[in-house]
Design brief:
455 residues; homodimer; seven-stranded mixed β-sheet; 16 helices; three-stranded antiparallel β-sheet; globular
């Protein structure tokens, strides 16, 4: 019989707080009849965000093509029908395995999307369609980690997919600390310090990972920051992992998303390998359950690309519907096409609502004595710093918040934070009708909890 | 820049022949305008097998629920609508992340399916919904391989998911050779010999893996065989991995599928951990692209189950539509429900066609001098032994077959075979209109090729 003790250390030590013990407790409370508001995970449709009609209409037709003939005229706009027909003509339908890399026509569409976004060319053969961005990140890390001395530089705070996967693959975490006092920006100095500390431990950093816009921080990098990371990577001989799944989630007028690919090409850098990731789960689609995404590689030699293909092939291919959702993300209705007006309306409603909620959360939290929240400039999270009485951890805090209010957030310890500080991550996703109340309950809880524990 | 030489040995050494170099060459030929018949992979819908209407209708409604109101009466049978409504009421819809283990209502349905199939109880909390069976197999192997001395006993020939994953996870392959002369059955003697050989290499076998019905062999185990494996595992302190994805694909009247779970329970074995796998990709659904499946655990301690949940959680969850396809597999229309007649008709047509094709392939190959093919008793493959002139490998043979006929099969070397023998694996999936011609072309090729090379 298999015993817990027999399981490898790497598996046992991997941690993933976003779905950890506090979430397990939340599910238990829910089964007991308590109402829980899940602010632990960026799962928009579970909190009432509506899917984009364009995406769902096309998928429904591809799944059941008889509808093309059987549905009454007007049920499906012409461009939806044409897109479904194109997908069916370009594939064996969603029931067949796709190429290991993913449908070729979708990879071509991704390349066109990157071209339209950044004005740079992109090679469909260096694009891999993945089950969400997570699997793309894992594929890149699998290649970069050959042994326990191979280090991956990750931001602190970070999204725990990175720490969990690096632990699982037996590599070394090389943390670099984002500057909370500078809106979570990063600096060359911070990167150098982390690099040197790793070298002193006899770790060989292999890659630097950047999440932009930031999860859990909500920070957005500017072009100079992106350029600085690329310069650093080039001088230190590192690859870059660019987690850009929140590229459509930039909230402040002064900010804009700058892709690593665009800066790499503008600077004509040919000696830094770039792995960048995108997903259908975030942005305005919020199609988390469909597990769609892509990995784009630049300056990655052919034999290394072949290894990624091989890794993909071992479990055959990414799921077909996720690949199609990725297609519908990168190839939306165009102005003048019949689906365009509704698509635009839904898209801007989702984004404007999120923008408003980002402000409500940021302002509401900052109004609480003992809570300090940086700008929620991008992504779907706030990561406020909380002042706690001595001896109280952010784990204690988040558990008490859950028990007393039903609000489920994740302790800062799950993402990493500067020693001696405490934080939590909350999403900005509760519905407009509830978000003010959620923030108010957190505020009231904070005051009561810190008073009680501090006494 | 990342270099091929920097990639870990485990990644570089993992091999997956089903999608290896011969398939790459086939795709190249296809791009040049040649017609290729892909017999390399069990991908029924790519060769014209129709999806089951029930599955696709429900998924279409779940993806675009407005159709429930908008489609004209009669487009969707009542039970399809009711099932879609049930799914939507039991979840946040397919756009939201599910629980890490998978939708609870689907896991409950899987438990009921196992109960109905075997008359034994099953615990939904020990069931994990996975992206195809592959990911379930990988989760179990991840737990069982803690270091390079941990061995996994796999059949030879085997499905290369196993060898590739064991290599990737840094474990040791412990091959046991199925008896080609006894219709690919296995014997206690064969298992013991393999076990002892591993111990002599200082390998500690942790689990024995069985594929039943067999891939690539087409063999079907009887109850005595299953019982023997369980006895062996118990005496040797091993876990059992039971790959049962072809459980609906049993072709001969004298055979029937016997699950490991049923024998474990009948014998009241409590000290052998069993991991069994099922999939929506095979059987009569053939929904490969949707990547749905499940892993059921028995006699696995709670803390070990928690580790599987954690591994699943790192990439959030299996894709939602694959989970729903699994639901529709285990909870089909029942007699008296409106979808039942069509479902039954489609199901039996697919299975009867496959049964006929299994015979056509087996007989056709056996009629060729120099080809010997065991009974295609189950699954979707034939794995004939071929007599080759000295110095000619099955790789050479399969490449020449592809170049000369456009038929793409996989060399026996990709699955493992007794030294000095040569085989290939072909699926039985080409359409009825083509299957006789495919077998005839293989026969003609074989005669011409061996004559030419032998001369």
């Amino acid at each position: 019989m298999i015993r817990y003790e027999d399981i490898g250390r790497q598996v046992r030590e991997a941690e993933y707080a976003v779905r950890g013990p506090i979430v397990a407790r939340a599910q238990e409370l829910e089964r007991q009849g308590r109402k829980v508001i899940y602010c632990n995970i960026g799962n928009p449709q579970s909190l009432g965000q509506k899917p984009i009609t364009w995406v769902r209409q096309v998928i429904a037709l591809v799944e059941y093509p008889e509808l093309i003939e059987r549905a009454p005229a007007g049920t499906f706009p012409e461009d939806v029908v044409a897109t479904a027909r194109h997908i069916l003509a370009s594939s064996y339908g969603p029931g067949a395995y796709t190429e290991s890399k993913g449908y070729r026509f979708v990879r071509e569409a991704v390349a066109e999307y990157i071209h339209a976004r950044d004005g740079i060319s992109s090679d469909p053969e260096a694009i891999f369609l993945t089950d969400g961005a997570s699997k793309g990140v894992q594929a890149a890390l699998r290649l970069l980690i050959a042994g326990e001395r191979d280090g991956i530089m990750i931001p602190i705070p970070q999204y725990p997919l990175y720490s969990a996967t690096i632990t699982l693959y037996g590599g070394a975490l090389v943390p670099y600390h984002l500057l909370e006092n500078a809106q979570w920006k990063l600096s060359r100095e911070v990167l150098e310090k982390a690099y040197e500390a790793a070298r002193a431990r006899d770790i060989r950093p292999r890659a630097v990972c950047v999440i932009n816009p930031g999860n859990p921080t909500g920070g957005v990098l500017d072009e100079r920051n992106v350029e600085m990371v690329i310069d650093f990577a080039r001088e230190r001989g590192l690859s870059v992992l660019a987690d850009e799944v929140y590229q459509a989630n930039v909230w402040l007028a002064g900010d804009r998303f700058v892709s690593f690919a665009s800066v790499l090409e503008r600077k004509k850098v040919r000696d830094v390998s770039l792995f960048s990731f995108h997903s259908v789960s975030k942005g305005f689609l919020g199609e988390c359950g469909h597990r769609g995404g892509y990995l784009e590689c630049r300056n990655v030699p052919g034999p290394v690309l072949d290894e990624i293909t091989k890794l993909q092939s071992i479990s055959l291919c990414a799921n077909s519907v996720g690949q199609l959702a990725t297609y519908l993300l990168v190839r939306p209705p165009r102005r003048g096409e019949p689906s365009f007006p509704l698509y635009e309306k839904e898209r801007s409603e989702v984004l404007e609502t999120l923008r408003t909620k980002a402000q409500i959360v940021e302002r509401g939290l900052n109004a609480v004595p003992g809570i300090q929240c940086n700008r929620v400039a991008g992504a779907m999270y706030a990561f406020p710093k909380i002042q706690l009485p001595p001896g109280v951890t952010d784990d204690d805090y988040c558990l008490a918040l859950l028990e007393e209010t039903g609000i489920c957030v994740v302790p800062g310890s799950g993402f990493g934070q500067d020693p001696g500080t405490a934080h939590f991550r909350t999403t900005i996703l509760p519905p407009m009708s509830e978000i003010e109340a959620v923030v108010k309950r957190i505020a009231e809880f904070h005051v009561a909890f810190t008073r009680r524990k501090g006494a």
